Give the backbone structure.
Amino acid sequence: MSQTRFADVRRFESIDSTNRYLLDEARAGAPEGVVAVADHQTAGRGRLGRSWEAPSGANLLLSVLLRPAIGPGERHLTTTTVALAALDAIGVVDPRAVTDVSIKWPNDLVESSGRKLAGVLAESDLVSAAAADGLPPPVVVGIGINVNWPATDADLPPELAGLAVSLCQMIGAPVDREALLAALLGALEPRVGDLDSVEGRARLAGDMASHCSTIGTRVRVDLPDGSFEGTATAISPEGHLVVTTGETTRTVAAGDVVHLRPGS
Ligand code: BTN
């Protein structure tokens, strides 16, 4: 682990949010590669202003500070980078379980029935980032992986019933969080390196396409100015979702996607 850029791993028994912590560190000029890992978060952040809950000591809750030298239009690839690295890491820990895991565009890891195994949240603060002398603007990417919680479906609160699954449930035995963390940090190094070049970014988009269960699925895309339905047909070379609605084809750079089942 020490030969990668992710050697500075800061551990917290309890913290409000590892993303919040690293955004503050970034404002103070922290370099790329700082990692924050928590046993428990009191105000874990999810996408779209949601919260991210997990019991203490059960799951992997971490954030990494990246400073990729890429433009604003490519920053969404940081989410792809971490989602792919998480998939790589699950493959290291259990090569069989990973065959049942895919990426729901843009940022969830799901198992084959669609239940969520992990979520990724990228946050940046471009205004105050300008203050950090000479450093590319920061992007903090957090990931929560359901490792040992839920242990059974009965552990889930009613609002998550049927919607979440853990690695432990998929494998049928508890999973070593430290082994998964080490595998994730190891996998991040080449994936983050790919952000630096045109070929690397194309590889990230291509790998996303080959692991993305959204392709071929009927979807509803929720955008700030409304929703539309269609069939997801591809991931563009830029990592955007291509959706055909029948009459037109739309390319979605950012948005929330719901996989629709027949009749829904
Ligand atoms: C999602 O809504 O799917 C994204 C969830 C991201 C949760 C992780 S847990 C570690 C990091 N710190 C946070 O506050 N959120 C992310």
Observations:
- The radius of gyration is 18 Å.
- The pocket of biotin is lined by residues 17-19, 41, 44-47, 50, 52, 61-63, 108, 119-121, 142-144 (CB under 6 Å).
- The chain has six helices and twelve strands.
- The chain has two domains: 9-211, 218-259.
